[in-house]
Fold:
Amino acid sequence: MIPKLEVHGVSYSYHSADGETLALSNISFSVDSGQFWAIVGPSGCGKSTLLSLLCGLLKPDQGEILLDGLPLSRDLTSVGYMLQKDHLFEWRSILSNVALGLEIRKQLDGQSRQELKSMLRAYGLEGFEQAKPSELSGGMRQRAALIRTLALKPDLLLLDEPFSALDYQTRLSVCDDISGILRESKKTAILVTHDLSEAISVADRILILSPRPGRIKAAITIEFPDCASRPLDRRNCPEFSIYFNQVWKELKTDE
Ligand code: ADP
Ligand code: MG
Structure:
């Protein structure tokens, strides 16, 4: 089976007036279809840069990125990108916010509008179609942002610290929700986070990056019993603290 995503020896530098900053060095990994990966590493190690490379916003200086076995093309309609800030437009209703991507692609019709409404219902936003973003809680806004991303039917989803603007309690439950949604819909997803517990509670595999320039320090496969598939259940398993210590140790050996 061809992996969903392959990254081969990718390096990237930023060029500015002050010179060159090597952000990522010789990154290689491959993600199978339907897997949920997390990437952790210290602030500034190149996590966001890596996601920008994966969605084609940046081009690697060296190396190659393949999606479904083919080089990334310019027209990346199959990759969805979700950021820390929800970027909902305050002057638009929730329904017209979640419809924005489809509207831009000129794919908004009766059927896609019905699909949006049923996603809003499925994700607990029924009755808020005409509300403005400011009338929603942080968690509801983040779910709306997810619907807007999923509406475009990406089969690879890149999430850059999507929960970090939320308070702790909300964050736990939104993370639980969203990872459940992604698993049910069998999406391949890559979540960047600096929160180790979050990574362990959602991922099948965790990539640990070194401080800048980001290199892969370790990759750890995460396995929990079937009865603990949800993030909140995983947190209560004895394996959780074992993985936590393992990832923590890998991160700490930088100091
Ligand atoms: P992370 O998401 O892990 O915090 P980033 O990918 O945002 O890290 O950044 C990696 C490194 O590249 C940082 O040291 C940052 O200062 C540098 N960097 C990021 N964006 C730019 C840019 N536009 N120009 C120059 N340097 C940048
Ligand atoms: Mg970042």
Summary: The chain is about 35% helix and 25% strand. The chain has a mean pLDDT of 90. Residues 47-48 surround magnesium ion (ligand 2) (CB under 6 Å). The two ends are 40 Å apart (CA to CA).
